[in-house]
Amino acid sequence: MTAIDIPSNLSTAALQHKYQQLKDQAEQHGQILTQKLASSQSGQNLLHMGSSLSTLPTDLHFLLTQLHPLLQGVEQSEGSLSSKLNNICERALVIKKHQRRVIHAQECADSFEDLLAAEKIVQLDLQMRKYGSVLAAEARASGDDEERSANDDDTSALDDALDHALSLERAAHIAQSLIIEVQQSQDDITDIADDKASNNINASLPPDTERAQFFLQLAPRIRHLEADVSQSLAGELERLLLRWTQQNLGASEKEILLLRFGHAVRGLSLIGRATDAESVFARTSIMPLIREHLSMGRLDQGGARGECAGLTSLLDDLSNTLAQRFGDFLQMDYLLTAGIDLLTRGVWVPLATTLMTDSAVRMAIFSPGIAKILQTNYLALDSFLNSLAVNLLREAKPEIVKLAQQRIYEHPKTAEFSKKWNLPIYYQLRFGECSKRLNIAIETTTKEGWVAQVYSGESETTNFELSLFQELNDILLFLWRRDVLLPPLTNRFLRGALQLVGRMTHFIQEGMDGKIRFGQEPVREGEANEAPDAIEEIGSHTYCWADSEENVAAVTWELSVLEGFLRDEYSSIICKSLDASPELSELVKDILSEAADQILPLLDTAWNAVIVRILTEKCCTPLALVKGVAATYRMTNRPPPTQPSHFCDQILRPVKEFSEANRTPSTVGFRWKQQIVVQVADRYATAVEELLTTVARTEVALQRNRRASRLTTAGGMSDGEKVKLQLYLDCQAFLNQVHSVGINPETIIGLVKLQDLTKEGEALANPPEQG
Q1: Nearest CA to 405 among 391, 395, 426?
Q2: What pTM value is reported for the model?
């Protein structure tokens, strides 16, 4: 820091000059500072403070001295007011406590009064049940409407019964509210904490246990009331249901009984005893009706014992009776909101339990041992279960019916009931029937050939011609008949159908491979320990059916029909039987298409391997006569040929006759003809080539013998030339045959070679004109 020099011993004029100089500098610096302060927000705030600072007293000590008494007074006032505030807050809390006690006392008094009223209602109900007042009133009220309208006492009795049911529902309301109070009191006692109240007039009151302790002291009495109310409501419900089942009830009494029923079930629902209402309904109304209808004699009505011929009519009668007697109760809308399901737990569960627990009925329905009876029983009960809500809730809204049916399906008893059906055994029985039919048909066909009549069905309308395939077709359709199919076994039935198709294709494949031979196998008579000369063979002729192209063509045509049947008609039949959705229909079609694809390789093998082999051998048989062409003209002095050899027409005749007599599957096409012509042409060309080689050697040998040479040239054409001309004519005839069977000769390499070999014959057949 720079030190400031203070002048000393200056004159007055010098001091004044110095003072004026410092004053000017101060003003100059003040202006600069003001400009800088004015250019910023913080500086502007300091400028505004300047005016207030100018008002401050010049002596701060004087200011503190004057303010000290004032501050002491303020502190004393604050302490006094704080003490008064605390006193007011304490008194306010006391007032709130007393107000709360008054409110709680009033609530407790009201609750206790309700408790006494409910106990009085229950006591009155007990006396009425003891002395039979309600039953007597109902008995007096019986009769037709005209008599009751004339009797005011009877009408009053019905009204009293209705009022009593209403009072029981009110008692249930009271019991419910008291139970809630007891539960809340238990929670309050558990959750109480020692919290200190703050010094705030609006502070919350500390927890109070007086009200909770009051209800906890009454808890045993309230629990007893709940049990008594439940018992009274159950008794009321049972009485009115028994009364409902009696005859000669008038319209007004039925209406009152329905109202009483509503009060009773709502009361039971309020106190959490909905299951009691369902149990009373099942025990009082449904079980007597089930015992009345369900018996072994009724099950076997109209048929032999154990056939359950009367099951369908029994279920129909039971459904109609339930709808007529108790339909008014079952389709009350408020039952759903009250959480009471009379249809499921009051009707279906008792019926299902009876069917599953009665040993005789259970064995007759679920385990009859006969597939047809089991399927009939299953469909009857399945139809009854699926339409239970529709039949019993006839006047209810569709959405209510749908919801009720869904609850039936979701109940655990329904799942338990479904497990009682031994469906895998049923499938084994049905599949065993189908397998037995197919095995018998295959065995008979193996012994008697494809002409064997093995069809055991009834319908004659089919696209198949061979009896074995007709039997397979009928078996496949049998699986999806209404009296055979069970929807839960759809996947197994579909798999079984594919297994049967596989069994048939395997049988045909083994036949084409020669592993299965047709005809009667040797039958040996006599004992095993007899001498060999005592053994006699009967009917020992066997054959392989695949050695005949006619058999192969007929069988493969049936296979092609089966392949198309699986892809189109059979999938439609299955989907129609199942009422399948679009997704399921597409899945079934894909599965059957894969099964049909397994037949295509068998068709290809049959035509392009087996039939080609058989027909090729037949077509090549006449080619053995090609060697005889040379012998025909050697040393015979015959004239030159003008016609093809007689065997030429025989070469492709088997193909033509076979093609005209048999149908070719569209999936096979005409490649089999191409293969036959290719193989025959190759063999033909080979035979011609060998013959021409032999002829050439012969001509060389003959040229050494002049005399022989003169003899062979006497006719103007040598023997070798005659042979070549004959081969050319035969080749042209063969080309015409190839055209006639629908094959282009230019695509056959063997024919091209054959034409090259017979070019010399072509020159002899068409000699150049002499100029």
Answers
A1: 391
A2: 0.70
